[in-house]
Structure formats: structure tokens, C-alpha cells
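@channel anyone free to eyeball this complex?
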Amino acid sequence: MGLTSYQHLEKRFKRIQILRSVIHLLRWDAEVMMPRGSSEVRAEQLSLLDTECSAILHSKKTLLLLDRVESRMDFFDDWQRANVREMRRICLCSNAIPKRLVNSLHRATTKAEMRWRQAVEEKNFKLLLPHLQKVVDLVREKANCLGNKLGYLPYDGLIQEYDPGRESQKIDSIFQVLDSTLPALTDEVIAYQSNHPPLGISKEVSIKKQKELGKFIMQRMGFPFHKGRLDESLHPFTEGTSEDIRITSKFAENDFLTGLMGVLHETGHAMYDFALPAEWFFQAVGRDRGMTVHESQALFLEMVIGRSREFMRFAAPCISHKFGVTGPEWEPENLLRLANRVRKSFIRMEADEVTYPLHILLRYNLEKDLFSGKLQVKDLPEAWNEAFSQRFGMTPENPNQGCLQDSHWPMGYFGYFPTYVLGGIMASQLYQSMVKDQPGILPQIEAGEFKPVFDWLDQKIYRFGAKLSCRELVVQATGEEINPETFLDYLRKKYLNP
Amino acid sequence: MGLTSYQHLEKRFKRIQILRSVIHLLRWDAEVMMPRGSSEVRAEQLSLLDTECSAILHSKKTLLLLDRVESRMDFFDDWQRANVREMRRICLCSNAIPKRLVNSLHRATTKAEMRWRQAVEEKNFKLLLPHLQKVVDLVREKANCLGNKLGYLPYDGLIQEYDPGRESQKIDSIFQVLDSTLPALTDEVIAYQSNHPPLGISKEVSIKKQKELGKFIMQRMGFPFHKGRLDESLHPFTEGTSEDIRITSKFAENDFLTGLMGVLHETGHAMYDFALPAEWFFQAVGRDRGMTVHESQALFLEMVIGRSREFMRFAAPCISHKFGVTGPEWEPENLLRLANRVRKSFIRMEADEVTYPLHILLRYNLEKDLFSGKLQVKDLPEAWNEAFSQRFGMTPENPNQGCLQDSHWPMGYFGYFPTYVLGGIMASQLYQSMVKDQPGILPQIEAGEFKPVFDWLDQKIYRFGAKLSCRELVVQATGEEINPETFLDYLRKKYLNP
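replying in thread with the prediction:
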């Protein structure tokens, strides 16, 4: 007996998933292991595998199979139906963009990223300008393609690649609430904290010890080291599929907290990936539910749990023990203050939980203006500085403190930034719901028992893979949609009434 | 203007080469980095990429292009012609074996290798027997396919996958010379050396220091670390393509010499790969010339150069300096004696340059008897012990000292063993010719100047890729074919008149 159309489709998507798992490994290796001089052949490898995935998604046979299967959806159970829906979505996204445009974008972003590094070195936006212009032109074309094909406004078409179902109109209303509240709240928190300054930590801690601490805490959280690793890289990241997930952090002798928080962030990403439904591992519906949900899991662990009083009470003795240190600066309450210090910074990557959304919504507004034609690429530095100064009351002294600080735009990632904040809001909602559901969970965290936390996340998020939409997941878990007011309540309580 | 048939073929083989480079990386990662629990998905990845390569080699279009191009060979220069010849050879080898047989072999060897580990643990050949029987049956079928298609005897068909153009009749006559000489020579050398025993080294050296020493010597030899790495693994190996080559060695605190010699062996492999003709990187003719040539390069560096007086005079002060040691046992002459000690051992992997060929030709004879039907798989342990005792005058006490010691057979590698010895003979010939060509080269080695050595190898071997046959390479470099008498002369001089 031959395979059914549905089984044929599953076979094709299994192929894609295996190819993607190889791509993940090649990317991890490029950041952690690969000799510097091997980047050209690595680019060839990645491009070949990527083309191979696209070829499956673009093939007439795949589309024919999808048509056939969609005409008999009542034969299938709800997981299979969701799988078909995700297959169609992935095909639509991929096929919306002509191959010619994919290639031009690849060339343009590779060039722009190289120039971006140079521009950063020389603190000179003009070096990047023509290349960024080219990228924006091409991404605008891509936005039109995606928007047309998927039935969205052009900019919203871009968002679909990262966060399926999200629309900028909704983001606008969420971000407006934050924009009108956070600048004042920031000042309030800074004033409050100036009356409760933490003791500084001057002791240097070897990277080896920091990694040991990181691994110890990962172990306590249930990170399955038989299917994953922790390594070092220039920036923390997570790569892999649930069968082999590798996280990295960046460690500095004089700042163990940043390294540890990086470990927690990436562990949050990894725990989500590890727990995706195993029986759907090779299938579209077995993937994660996009970047907002993924980021919510990372921020939940890094910002919410990792910077909670309960976690610090658990972690402080571990830190003292592993590092061989004691003293008032290593007490939980002081570490908590250190980890939750709010400060105005030019740099997004250094920002805290309160000011971070401001960094993002500034970028989001500029992106939208670039795509509506209201803003020219050449005017970006000025527009950035104006928007920054409005929100932070200070002006970048050079473009490295301004619009050159991120690689997202040179790399063509427009429509991605909002997921950082939406994920942060979602994380705060999950936390409040979890604590309401299971009030006993906080003492368990304090005791270093993290299983109930991950069990709860599994019940609410992990096990659904891409079966439900982000909206459905949030509503199911928290009883409401992504809600900036809940986030603001959480911030006020945590930072003004800690 | 469209591509010519030849250009289309090049494009197809470029694809194969990129896929192969990914396979190399996945294999390296599996041994050095991969979490234990990720082996299933790794197997899926490797199988998919392998199938992808085969699909190109099996496609009607590829074969049609080859036919077309071969009918106009006079249009091409000699590199292109050699490239087409290699493409055809690779296609023939791959297409000779039906897909069904490839899959059965894959399943059977995977199973047999697992059982082999268990059999080793329990020192019980019977656990392996049915699985090895299955592998032998399938490899026999493979041998018939390859022999038929390539115009060789069945067993010689197997050899073609490792060492193109080699025939067992020639191997027989080479091995007969060694078999009739080496047992007596071994006794003679052992007697000689018992009058000149080296001082033992009891000091333990940290693995970190040993790796630093290895890297230092690799650097001196010109190993391009911007396109390669040194790591640790259970057994030393080399994986990669000239754009990204990774070698490993196995280090033990109480035996730095073995670790260092492992580094040299793999560096020999790597230097060959690095120097393959860059302009043919993606093409069949740009590959290495099979396992005899490859092994000759590894043994040249490990056995010939690395165990020479000149090398030890260079290395001894480096060792003293890096390890912080002095004393008569660290003097060049003593290190040389330690490195060149000849001893009868049951285990091939522990064997020295003099006894090593005996280990191999024993295996070679058994293989041939298995394939001619003269020997049954079930009688292997007995036949092994008999053959071993004939040559070494001692009998293995258990199968781990006998026919269970290598994984080659369970993994289906029949016809591979001879390349170890042929490579060793070739290495000794290259050495003698090099020294004759450039008598000044020995003092340069003593001064740690290795460039002239690698330049000479480049002139004679590296730069030809797979353009010439192994026979052509050896004759061009040394003025004679692979010659066991030259090897014996080399051994006598080195071990009886050092």
C-alpha cells in the first residue's frame, strides 16, 4: 500500500526539519568552534541547505499534495489539521518571495553586515548608508510580496515571518500604553533605587567557575545535558532542535551576573525547545510558536524568575559556595538589587526590564516610518537621536550609541524587534498567572525546586508546539490577551515596592 | 548563454563536495562535541545528506551529461579530462551498488558495530558472530557488484572504494616479501634494542601542556590554524576539507609520546588535504588520491619524520621547555629510542613500524579467505590465533587480543586494511627520495624548518590531487613503484644501524 497524500507531505516536512537541524548545527559551530578562515565554505554550506528547504516548499508536488489534503480535512484529527495549516503557512511565506529577491537580499545583507562592522569601527553611519538603503529597498519589496500573499499590510507581512498572526495595529496600541508610561516610571524607579543602592562587587571570578555555576543551575532546572551543551561565544545564543540544543553565554571575570543572566535567558529558550511535542518533532506543528512566545520563555527565566527574590535566595548560597566568597555584597537581597538596577543607557543590550521596552518601541516606530516612506534611510541617525532624547532625556554622542548599535537592520530583520517587548509582557503575565494558579510555587523556587515551574509552562505553552496561535496560548494561560497594563503592574510592584 | 554539459557536471559535483564537507563536520562534531543523547538525529542527518549525494550520482541527467562530455574529451585540457575521468569513476562506484543493498548494509553494520562493542565488553566473539556473518554476506554481494561493474575480481572491487586502481595480485606479491622477512627482522631488532634500552619516563604531564606542545609543533610545521583546529577525542582522527580541517589526538598524562605521535599522524593527513589544488576544491579531481596516498602522508610525518633523529633533536628542547623538565631521559637520543621501541604486541594500534605490517597482512589474508569462501566467519577466531602465533610466536588469550580488536569488519570495511601498509612503504620511499633530492633537508628538520619538507611533498604529491593515479605519483616521486625492498632497507638502517 502506498503512502497517502498526507503521509507524503509529512515525509517532505521531515526532510525540511532534518535539513534545518543541520543548519542549526552549522550556525552554532560557526560561532563557537569554526576557524576564522572557514567562513566562505560555511556560507556555501548554509546556502545549499537553505535552497534545498526552499526547493521542497516551492515544488509543485508539495503544493499539489497540500491542495489535496486540504480538501479532506475532516479525515484528520486536530493535530494533523494544525500540522496541515502550519505547512500551508510555511509554504505561503516561503513562496511569497521570488527566488531572485531571496538571492538579492542574501547578497545585500551579507554586504551590509560587513559594512556595518566597519561603520561601527569608524563610528560612521555614512559607510553603511548606501548598503542599508539597498537592504531597505529590497525588504520593502519583500514586505509587499509577503503582505500581498498573506493578506496583510506590507510591514505586517514582514512580522509574519517572526510572529505569525501579529499585526502592527495591535502592537501600536500596546506600545502606546508603554510609551506614555515608562519614561515617567523609569524616573520614579531610579529615584526610589537611589535611596536603596546595592553594594558593588569588585571581586573577579574565573570564567571556569562561572561556567560551573551556570551548569549547576541549568542542571537544577532540568536542562538535559545528554541532549545539550553550554559553551562561550561573543553573544549568548541558543541553536538547535529538541534532540540537540546548544546554548552559549558570554562571561567576563568582573561581571558574573551578566554571564549568569545570559545562561538563564538561553536556558529559557532551550527548555521550550526541549519540551516541544516529541511525537511531532519532524513536523511543522512540532515547531515553536514564533519569536514572541520564544522570547517570553527566555525573559521569563532571565528577567522574571532569575531576578526574583526567591531565585536569589536559592542562588546566593550556590554562588557563595562555588565562588568561595562571603560578605554582605553576596547576600540575596544585595544580589537582587544589583540584578534589578534600573539605569538609562544608550545601549539596548545593557538595558534593564523597565527601560528595555523604550529602546524597542523607538526602533519599531522608526521601522514603520521607513516602510511608510515617512522617513528616509539617510535621516535615520537624526531621527533616532531625536526619538531617543524624547524618551530618555539624553542624546547619543555618536552613532555607535545610536542607530549603529544593532545588526538587525543591516541583516534585513525588520519586524523582529517588537517580539522582544511582546515576549517580555507575556512573561510577566505568565508569572502572575502561575503564582495565582499555584501559590506554593514561590517557596519551591526558593528551595531550588524548578520542576513545578517547568511543569506549569509545559501544561500551558510547551506541549502545544505550533498547534495554537500565540493569542490562544496567552489567553489560555493567563485569561487575557497580551496586556501592557498587567506588565506595568508587575513592574510597579517589583521596582517600587520590592 | 547557457552552461555547457561540462559546466553542468561541475555544478553537480560542486554540490556533492559541499554536502560532503557538511558530512565531515557532522562526523567531527559527533566525536568531539555532540551530546551523547543526540546520536539518533545525527544518524538521520548523515543519512539524508548521503542519500542526497547518491541521488546526484544516480540521476539519469548526470549520466547523460557524462556520456556527452566523454564523447568530446579533446575539447578539454588535461585537468578537465582527469576531472571527467574521476567523475565517471565515482559514479561507477556509487551506481554499482543497488540502493536496496546500501540500505541493508547500513542497517547491518550499524547493528554489528553495536554488537561488537558488547562482544568486546564480554570478550565473547559469539555475540558478534551472526551479525558479522550478515555483514560479510552483504559485503560479498557488494564485492560482486563492484567487481562486475568496474571490471575487477570481487575482492578487488571492494579495494577500489579506498584505493582506486589497486589489485590484490600486486598486494599479494608485496605482502609475501614482508611476510617472509619481518618475523625474523623483528627478532633481530628486539635483540639489538635489548642491548640499548632507553630510560623510561615516569613523569606525568598535564593534557593542557601536551596540547600546547602539539599546537606549537603543528604551527612550526605550517598547519594553518585559521582553517583548522586540534581537539581531543577517543581515537585520533582527521575530518574536513581543505577549507576547514579538524584533527584530534588522544592524550594521556602518563604517555605524552603517544599523544604527540597522534598529533603528527593527523597533521600529516591534514597537510595533504590543506594543499590539495584550491582551484579544483569543489571538483572530483581536487580530492585526495585515496587511502594509500593519504596514509603515506600521515605515516611520513608520524613514523618517518616524527621518529627520526633530526626531528627529536628539534623536538627535545621544545618538550623540555614546554613541560619544564630536564634530565637524561628527555635527551633526543633517549626520546628517539623510546619512540622507536619494537615490541611484539597482540594489538595493532599499539604496534611499531616493524611489526605493524604483520598485523595487517594477517588481516588481509583472512579477509581474502573469507571472500574466497575458504574461511567461514565462525572459524575466524581460531584462524586468527593460528595466523598470529605463526608470525609472532604467541597466542591471544581472548578474542579482544585477537579478532575482536578492530571495528573495521563489523563496520563493513573489507579491502581497507592493506592501505595502511602500502602507505607505510610509500612513506619510506618518499623519505629516501626526498633526502636524495635535497640532502640539506635533514639539518633543516633538525633546525625546526619544515617548509622544505612540505614544499617537496607539494611538488611530488599534494598539488596533483586526484589527477594522477597512486602508481603514477609514487613512480614520479621515487622512480619506482611501491617496493617492499626499499621499505625493508629503510627498516634495517633505522632499527639495526640507528
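from a first look: Chain A is about 65% helix and 5% strand.
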